[in-house]
Amino acid sequence: MNAFTLYRRMAGASIKAQLRYPGTFALQLVGNFVTTLLSFFGIWSLFHRFGSIAGWDIGAVAVLYGLVNVSFSVAETLGRGFDVFGSEYVKTGSFDRLLLRPRSTLVLLLGHELRLRPIGRFLQGAFVLGAGFWLSPHVSWNTVWLLPWAVAGGAVMFLGILIGQAALCFITVEGLEVVNVLTYGGVEAGQYPITMFARWLRRFLTWALPLSAVCYYPALAMLNHPDPLGMPLWFGLLSPAMGFVFLALMMLWWRRGVAGYVSSGS
């Protein structure tokens, strides 16, 4: 059995388990959709009151909001095993059993649980994203092909954060809540134009944690919106690749953590 077949079977078992109680699943899906949609109404009320802020209208911000939420929901669906890695694997010593199996630990943790609850966030983000394109008057339709490329870059970037968080557990044993500054905090920051932040934070969110590279700059290219910071529009066509570079770096850190792992016992 190759890695893909193994993952497909593990994901299938996870989906079947979650669908055994369809009523509970439906309530979770609707609840996730509604609660995440309510957060957008706070942004909408702000623009409804002031019209536009620093040259940004509600349509452009809706595109940013939709991009970052769709990307995060994909990573949240795939990366549950890394999210609970410290408490369920390192602290209990269960990671030792994974090391005995002749398969990549990354594949095994990806197959820990294919969580369906974030589908609610995905649908809500896609709805807001579509509304943003509809409300934006200067959409460059010949660059809309960039949308799946940007979503893929954002998803692997957030997945890289989860892998990095899990790798940190080799040192801390349990996951640190401070890492949520990069996950949920990154989702919140990605919903707004990067020009709102201080220079040091803009540089961090572009070159260290490439959040703006997978969200802000692709959105500028699709909306044909000039960057107030002077970055050319063509940068947004290439910048989602930085999400894959970030994932590769986190995977290297993961391999280094596994190489130095000493069992914590039970």
TrEMBL record:
<feature type="transmembrane region" description="Helical">
    <location>
        <begin position="147"/>
        <end position="173"/>
    </location>
</feature>
<feature type="transmembrane region" description="Helical">
    <location>
        <begin position="233"/>
        <end position="254"/>
    </location>
</feature>
<feature type="transmembrane region" description="Helical">
    <location>
        <begin position="204"/>
        <end position="221"/>
    </location>
</feature>
<feature type="transmembrane region" description="Helical">
    <location>
        <begin position="122"/>
        <end position="141"/>
    </location>
</feature>
<keyword id="KW-0812">Transmembrane</keyword>
<keyword id="KW-1133">Transmembrane helix</keyword>
<keyword id="KW-0472">Membrane</keyword>
<dbReference type="Pfam" id="PF06182">
    <property type="entry name" value="ABC2_membrane_6"/>
</dbReference>
<feature type="transmembrane region" description="Helical">
    <location>
        <begin position="21"/>
        <end position="47"/>
    </location>
</feature>
<protein>
    <submittedName>
        <fullName>ABC transporter permease</fullName>
    </submittedName>
</protein>
<feature type="transmembrane region" description="Helical">
    <location>
        <begin position="53"/>
        <end position="72"/>
    </location>
</feature>
<dbReference type="InterPro" id="IPR010390">
    <property type="entry name" value="ABC-2_transporter-like"/>
</dbReference>
